[in-house]
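Page 42, continued from yesterday. The earlier attempt failed because a stray header line got pasted into the input along with the sequence. Redoing it now with the clean sequence only.
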Amino acid sequence: MTDGRQFAVFDTAIGRCAVAWGPGGIVGVQLPEGSERATRARIAKRFPDVRDGKPPPAVKRAIRDMAALLDGKKADLSRIALDMDGVPEFHRCVYEAARMIPAGATLSYGEVAKRAGAPGAARAVGQALGRNPFAIVVPCHRVLAAGGKLGGFSANGGVSTKARMLEIEGARASEAPSRAPATAAGLDFDPRVAVKHLRAADDALARIIDAVGPLAIELKKTRTLFGALAEAIVYQQLSGKAAATIYSRVRGLFPGSKDGPTPRHILSATDAQLRSAGLSRAKAAALRDLARHAQGGEIPSLAAARRMGDEEIVERVTRVRGIGRWTAEMLLIFRLGRGDVLPVHDYGVRKGFAFAYGKRKLPAPKALEKHGARWRPYRTAASWYLWRALDLPKK
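This time it went through. Structure tokens are written below.
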């Protein structure tokens, strides 16, 4: 160790990242690989002379701010000291120009080239950003190809990771965020890849996986997002049998509709009609509010929802009376097949976690969210296994 370089891993909303530092400041940041072990191996390969260390105050602040930024919060990374010793002069100019792009904004490679004092050098800018050792702090994910297209990204996950980071910051590329092709089961991720990732990331969860068996999430048939949400409102706080009976009666109020009631049907029905089906006053009011939002265009079509990010869907549907985050998360998992949803307030998930990890008390939602960072981007699969853990013998 000639210069006392060290590194540490830390949790973020996109997984376990790593940061390496020396006397002159941060020398490198590593975005998550497939597992923490892989992330550690990657940072060690990039900086063969580093060793595990305890971050000094300045690096602690940098870690805190990077994690905050990736959690969608405001964070100023412009004052983080970077050690650019050995970085080519042109690359330094590109990185400084990129650091001036605020969260939520983007520039093209050509625009960065102009700011770096090299108009017309868009390709060279792309090459410099492809070798960016300071990911997150030097936000190369905010630099897009011509026309606002995502372009390339050298981190694990490629442009999907880039799109996800932009989505967290509220920025938009002209391309929709890349998602895995739908599987035969309707999921937007490969169950085999998810299980492999979870096994490598978490030994305790790996034991649950061994006990439960293959991942078998079953999606409910969905024709419209409005219909799925209407059914969810009816089913809230009822046993499955009672809810099914009431929902069947609600559908029976509108015999001409094969796919269930439409917003127009709900708004044209009287309170007495809705109550006659067995709906409580609160649920009847919630269905009407849902119908008004749908008629106003605030509830997206199923096709539009499949192009939207998870948080955008949650934000849209929770505007409706009677629909909270938990209901929105169940929609994402069991209707849309999204792969990275962790319902931290769900009793079953928390109970399953306590069982899997030998805890006497249920984890606090924040603690569960922090631990679950290692499961990204397959937290839906982890949640499913925690639900299934409750069916296993207690010993």
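Notes: The chain has a mean pLDDT of 87.
Reminder to self: strip header lines before submitting.
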